[in-house]
Design a protein that fits this description.
Elements: E1 2-6, E2 9-16, E3 19-22, E4 25-34, E5 37-42, E6 45-50, E7 61-65, E8 68-76, H1 82-91, E9 104-106, E10 111-116, E11 123-124, E12 129-135, E13 138-143, E14 148-152, E15 160-161, E16 166-170
Length: 171
């Protein structure tokens, strides 16, 4: 059992193999390594986690969870390898700043991505529909706020997103 502080909020965390218990609530966890980051799914919610290099991971480290910066501190033992630390860091991100990524297009409301119209590398003009977000039984067009090139689309069709989640990044 460990105490983990993320974004100024402290949680009791225990890693049990492919499950993590946060403040008494147990979540199944999977970790997938992608290009330069991890996709950690806790319960049914995926998080994009960017960590420092393995040799620099320690209590007090800076991480990004869904493009939001957090300082993660812990006391006690999280598990036998570095992976549980990653799982614990991703299991309960709350609070913190909205996207610190320049050019990020964020969700203005929680909902479900029903269609993605763009992909990384594609050129877009201001007003182009990037994706369709369904919220409260209505389809909302998420439009490019400016001309540019799509650097990343970290969401996919069928994915649920929360208010403030990054939907696309445009350079």
């Amino acid at each position: 059992m460990a105490k983990v502080t993320i974004g100024g909020r402290t949680y009791e965390v225990e890693v049990r193999g492919d499950r993590v218990v946060v403040d008494g609530h147990e979540f199944p966890v999977t970790v997938r390594e992608d290009a330069g980051y991890l996709t950690v799914t806790a319960g049914s919610v995926p998080y994009r986690i960017q960590l420092p290099p393995p040799g620099e991971r320690q209590s007090g480290m800076e991480v990004q969870v869904d493009y939001r910066p957090f300082t993660v501190q812990w006391e006690g033992r999280l598990g036998g390898s570095s992976a549980p630390r990653e799982r614990a860091a991703a299991s309960a991100p709350t609070g913190g700043a909205r996207s610190a990524v320049k050019g990020a297009v964020t969700a203005q409301i929680s909902g479900k991505v029903v269609r993605v119209n763009v992909k990384a590398g594609q050129t877009v003009a201001k007003g182009d529909v990037l994706l369709i977000l369904e919220a409260m039984k209505m389809e909302n067009e998420i439009k490019a706020p400016a001309d540019g090139t799509v650097r990343e689309v970290p969401v996919s069709e069928g994915q649920r997103v929360a208010e403030g989640d990054v939907l696309a990044v445009i350079d």
